[in-house]
Structure formats: C-alpha cells, structure tokens
Amino acid sequence: MRALLDIFAQVFRSIGANKLRSFLTMFGIAWGVASLLLLIGLGEGFRSGQRRSLSEIGTDFIMMFGGTIPALPGQHTGMQPYKLTLSDANAIRAEAQHVRNTTALINRGDLKEVSEFSSAGGPVMGVEVNFPEIRHLPIAQGRFLNEDDLAQSRQVVVLGQKNNKLLFPGRPSLGAYITLNGYRFQVIGVANKIGRGNNDSDNQKIYIPLSTMMELFAMKGDNIPQDSIYSIQYQPLTPDQNETAKAEVHKIIGRRHGFDPNLTDAFEEWDTIKSQRTVGVIFTAMDVFLGGVGIVTLALGAVGIINIMLVTVTERTREIGLRKALGATNRSILMQFFLEGLLLTAISGMIGIIGAGGLMFLLGQALGDNQMGFDPPRLVPWSAAMAMVTLTLCGVVAGLYPATKAAMLQPVEALRKE
Which positions, given as ranges, span the membrane (predicted)? Predict the structure, then answer.
C-alpha cells in the first residue's frame, strides 16, 4: 500500500513539474470531450423538441385533404380536383379494418368572431366529438363538444386560449356569448395553451359542432358536394400499420371518387407517423456521425498524450537509470509512467464532462422552456458513458506504451544518457 502511495506521489510531482505542458495536453482532451457531449446534447434537445412538437399536434395520425386526380396519357380529360365528404369519412369508419379512429372537420378562416367586449380572428373549426382523441386539445375550463351538441346542431363553441383572452380580456367567458358572422354561440369550454414560444396558431382556433358548421357555414363553390369537408384525419390500429391503413383509405377514396387508388399523386396527405420516423432516422445518423467524430478526436488526444509521455521518458532517462540502479523494479517504473498517462487522460475527461454539463445547464437557463421545436440541451448518459469508455482505452494505450519503454531501459545505458 505504501509503495502504491509513493508511486501516486511521484506521478503528481511529475505532472506538477511540467504544468504548462500538462495543462495544454489535458486541455486538448477536455475540449474534445466537452465538444462531443455538447453537440450530442444539443442534438438530443432538438430531437426531443421535434417529438414534443409532433405530440402537441396529435397522436399517431394521418391527415388527408381533398386532392387532384392527375391527367392520364390517352385521355382527353385534364386534372380534376375533388373534395372529401362526410360520407367518405363514414365509409372509412365502416370499411377500413386497420383504422381505429376517424374524424372529419371543416376549417373556415373567413368568419368574423365578435364578443360583447372585443373581436378576434382565427380559424373556426367544425369538428366531431372524437377530435381530441386524435388531435392534442386539452381543456382548461368547461367541457368539449358532446354527442348531443352534434345531434342537435347546437350553437356552442370552445375557445382557444389566445382567442379567449382577446374576446374576453380579464373577464369570465364560460356561459357568455359570441357571434360568428352574426350567429349567436354560447361558450361552453376554453382550451389549454398548446405548444411553446410565440406560435399561437393553435391557440387562436375555436371549435364548433361539425353539424352546426355544415348547416350554417357549409363549404361553397362550383361542383362542391353538400356534405364537403376540409379534412379527414385517422389513426391506424398501431403505428406500424400506417401504410396498410393508408392503402385501405386510398382504396375507399379512389372508389368513391372514381379514380385508381394507385395514383399516389391524387392524394394530399400528411403522415405524422412517417414524419416522426424520419426525424428519428436523421438524428440517429447524426448521433452515429458525432460519436465517430468524438472517438477520432479522443484518439488524437491519446496520440498527443503518448507523444508527451515519450518525451517525458526521454527527458527522465537518467532518473530512470538511477532509480533502477538503486533497486527500483521494472514493475514500479512501469506503474509510475502508466498511471501518469492514465491520470492525465482521466482528469482531462472528467473536466470535459463537468464542463459540458455546466455549459448545457447555463444554455438551458438562458433558452428557457419556450423555444418552439427545441428543448434545452442535456447531458445524454450514453454519450458520457461512451466518452468514459473511450477515454479509459485511450488512457491505457497512452500510458502503457511509454511506460513499457521506460521499464525496459537498461540502468547502465540509461545512466550514460546526457
């Protein structure tokens, strides 16, 4: 035990005797570790922010809109637009075996919203009762629409948080009335805030029964069916069955609107499940790339430590020869120089990890929680573990080779060295 303590004391004396050289060597390793962990932490913050943004839109759903049937070679008809209908949504509910939930909606942005105190603008959504099951819509006050509201085409409304503040500044809104293009609606609920930052598009929406929307504010235009809707949104039985569910829905829509469902250009849709997978693949590839860059950086740092240790062995050749002449064993010489290289690497790595963690904490405090699509960076456990394992291997190599060279020196030859 005493011998081991003596070796550690010699190691620290050696490091302290060359402060500038030791500092510069350790700084290179610490900088590489901190850079690696910071980049991965920023990437993880962006990844989790994107996942959160998608989850605030809704849960594993596919959004379909009216499309355009492309012109086919040999046919005299040109491109033909078509609108989705409530009948299409009901057909999907009845026929699509791999779809567990379907909702239809109408989106109108041209209706004037007026209360006793103020006026506001924003999309008016005609929705069904199951809309919050697919889309993220937490209720802060009151309730959401129910079956009776739709069955009786009631003139009731749920306000988004931003429009609630605009229409009823500093006043209670539940039970009060607003008008939409002159029609009187009673406020039955207020949605909670959706999203972060200054993006208030979802918080400016208001929601009324789809049946009421179709009765009072139906979609108008040439060749538009009476039960036309803006969008159909649906969830597959499981996220892994999204392609199967889409194929079933395409087949139903193609049959009902008279075109080949294999004409993918005829469908306007957004698959949030596929988008989430794409985001995951991109960030996984980024993690692999950054991990490779980090390992190379740490390996280069280890080469620097090997070089410094070899210089140290050369400078201390006479000391090594004298110690061996006085009875020092190859093992004690090997252990001293091995521990010196290992400690240089380990201390550098710990400084890098602590520095990266501190910097990410400060960035998180500065950025706050209100950045849209971006969460504060955080120290990722697997990246810190990878850095420590890589540093350990680099430290073993950086310490072992110069230490072996020092231990193999012959005392007589070492004492002759000037």
Answer: 23-43, 288-313, 334-362, 382-401
What are 261-271's pLDDT values in tens digits?
A: 998 888 999 99
Q: Which residue has the tokens 């948080």?
A: 161
**216 and 315 in one domain?**
no
pLDDT category at 72 given cuts 50, 70, 90 is low
The count of structural domains within the chain is 2
Whether 236 and 94 map to the same domain: the answer is yes
Q: Are residues 236 and 364 in the same domain?
A: no
| Arithmetic mean of pLDDT, 369-382 | 71
272 domain residue, yes or no: no
Please give the full DSSP string across 325-384, using - where no structure is assigned: HTT--HHHHHHHHHHHHHHHHHHHHHHHHHHHHHHHHHHHHHHTT--TT-PPP---HHHH
Looking at the structure, do residues 294 and 244 belong to the same domain, yes or no? no
What are the distances in angstroms from CA 61 to CA 33, 231, 251, 280, 331? 40, 12, 18, 17, 66
Same domain? For 240 and 114 the reply is yes
| Residue tagged 């500044």 (tokens) | 169
- Do 197 and 372 touch, CB atoms closer than 8 A? yes
Residues in the chain: 418
Domain that holds residue 99: 68-266
Q: Confidence class of residue 115 from pLDDT cuts 50, 70 and 90?
A: very high
Q: Is residue 329 part of a domain?
A: yes
In a domain, 60, yes or no: no
pLDDT over threshold 80, residue 351 = yes
Q: Looking at residue 195, what is its pLDDT? A: 75
Q: pLDDT tens digits, residue range 191-231? A: 998 876 666 788 899 999 999 999 999 887 777 888 899 99
Q: Are residues 204 and 134 in the same domain?
A: yes
252 and 321, same domain (yes or no): no
Report the 10 Å Cβ neighbour count for 265: 10
CB atoms under 10 Å from CB of 47, counted, come to 20
Residue 40: how many other CB atoms lie within 10 Å: 26
Planar angle of CA 257, 260, 263, nearest 5 degrees: 110
Q: Which is nearest to 329 in space by CA: 406, 402, 415?
A: 406
188 and 108 within one domain: yes
Q: Cβ neighbours of residue 201 under 8 Å, at least 6 residues apart?
A: none
